[in-house]
Amino acid sequence: MTTSGGVGMTGGELEERIAQWREFVARRDAIARDVDELESHLRDQIDGLQASGLAPDEAFLVAVKRMGRLDELSKEFAREHSERMWKQLVMPDAAPQASDSRSLRLALGLAVGAALAVRLAAMLLPDGPAGALMNASVLVLPFLATHFLMRRRASAVTAVAVLVPFAITAVVLNAYPFEPDGTTQALSAMHAVVAMWLVVGIAYAGGDWRSSRARMDFIRFSGEWLVYYALIALGGAVITAITLGVFGSIGIDAQPFVGEWLLPCGAAGAVLVAAWLVEAKQSVVENIAPVLTRVFTPLFTLLLLALIAAWIVQGITAGSDGTTVVFGERNLLIVFDVTVIFALALLLYSLSARDPLQPPKWFDRLQLVLLASVLVVDVLVLVSMVGRIAEYGSSPNKLASLGLNLILLVNLVGATWLQTRFVFGRERFAALESWQTAFLPVYLAWAAVVVAVFPVTFGYV
Question: Are 400 and 335 in contact (CB under 8 A)?
């Protein structure tokens, strides 16, 4: 196997590199006592990176760089051995790795397949573009899952475990007698995206879905994928505007082409391109998660604290003059629900970016404040939601939201407790990480219930 610089590494050479790193770290007395645990963590990092497609020396360099955050001596070692990695990044004449070239061709081929699947569905399904949108999860995400199954050289058992849920979901979305534009149809389509994305995580982990580290790696991938997809979407918006402007200036209406081909096909293909970018970037530079989490966590914490204060003030004012409590309104509850989900996603992304061996720092205390704030907001949303159900009765939307918020409540209570113990030195970070990753199957199960059970229960309305 060759790296981007064309230099291979055998298993024996990898062990020699690890031995050099161990000798470096052992020179510091404060760390030498934990060198066995540190080496175990280093090997876990290397195994995970190799499973994601990196060559042994690339995996070693990235893992050492992550471990280098432990102390200055390890940073020195990381700088010394990462020099070649940075040369690969800045030297324009560096030959690309053959496997990277193959993975790019694979990603582009699957991107074209996803784009054509969406376009054909819009042409052939009875509901046209609306039917293609409802089936987006089973039209696009199977191509992403295939990308990872092929990259990881997954076993036949793993492939079946990944592809069968897509087939079942496709049958549910198209065989159920949904009422046109009904609530359960929209709920099933939205939750199918969540469920199938988590199924993609099984392919991403190469079948090792029980591993907490593999799940956390998928969380990191998901966050960075979202960033790349957003950047591609912004570029696509510029291209769309230019296309409309240029053809419009010569009297040609390009809107049909943009609406029927450019936008749906581009949106589908970008799913694969963004995934390839996350994987390819990982082999040369560290992930961007630490930067993003440190920028957005303080801002979002302030937003949540302001939201709690506004909720309290508005509630007191409304109660004193007898008017309706505005924070009980349906649309606002939906917005606050999205806020809670986004905050939890930010927390998960932060956990994925953190070195689990570092002691608690100021940022961990800030995250504790964020967790407590999200927990308070979730409780307020639950109280208002129960009140609305008691006053207006239940509905598919209300029960789906109520179930999700109850799951989030359990998650947040446990996470706040473990984060508190970790901040005060009474718990290891691994416990907090395991708690969060253990909830991924719970989210998958709940999404599956909403997709398959809710329509039957509510008569497909």
Answer: no
CA-CA distance, 431 to 436, in Å (whole number)?
9
pTM of this prediction? 0.77
Chain centroid to Cα 242, Å, comes to 31
Q: Which residues lie across from 120 on neighbouring strands?
A: none
The Cα 62–Cα 78 span in angstroms is 9
Cα separation of 55 and 48, whole Å?
Answer: 11
**Positive or negative, the Cα torsion across 30, 32, 37, 43?**
positive
**In angstroms, rounded to a whole number, what is the distance separating the alpha carbons of residues 72 and 32?**
14
Neighbours of 242 (CB within 10 A): 10
Phi/psi class of residue 345: alpha, beta or left (left: φ > 0; alpha: ψ in -120 to 50)? Answer: alpha
Which residues face 2 on adjacent strands? 8
Phi, psi at residue 2, to the nearest 5°?
-115, 155
- Confirm if 331 and 383 have CB atoms less than 8 A apart: no
Give the residue from 314, 332, 310 showing the smallest Cα distance to 324. Answer: 314
User: Tokens 């988590």 map to which residue?
Assistant: 198
| % helix, strand, coil for the chain, step of 5 | 80, 0, 20
Sign of CA dihedral 397, 401, 404, 406: negative
* CA separation for the pair 194, 200 (Å, rounded): 10
Segment 206-235, tens digit of pLDDT: 878 888 888 988 988 898 899 899 989 999
DSSP of 126-168: TTTHHHHHHTHHHHHHHHHHHHHHHHTT--HHHHHHHHHHHHH
- In tens, the pLDDT along 344-361 reads 888 888 887 777 777 888
373 class by beta-carbon count within 10 Å (0-12 exposed, 13-18 middle, 19+ buried): buried
Number of alpha carbons in the 13 Å side-chain half-sphere of residue 226: 12
| Whether the Cβ atoms of residue 71 and residue 31 lie closer than 8 Å to each other | yes
CA-to-CA distance for 454 and 176, rounded, in angstroms? Answer: 11
**Bridge partners of residue 8, in order along the sequence:** 2
Please give the residue that has the higher pLDDT: either 294 or 322: 294
Cα 411 to Cα 15: distance, rounded to the nearest angstrom: 40
DSSP, res 262: I
- Taking the C-alpha atoms of residue 211 and residue 100, their distance in angstroms, rounded to an integer, is 26
For 47-100, the pLDDT digits (tens) are 777 776 677 777 777 777 666 554 455 555 555 544 444 344 333 344 444 556
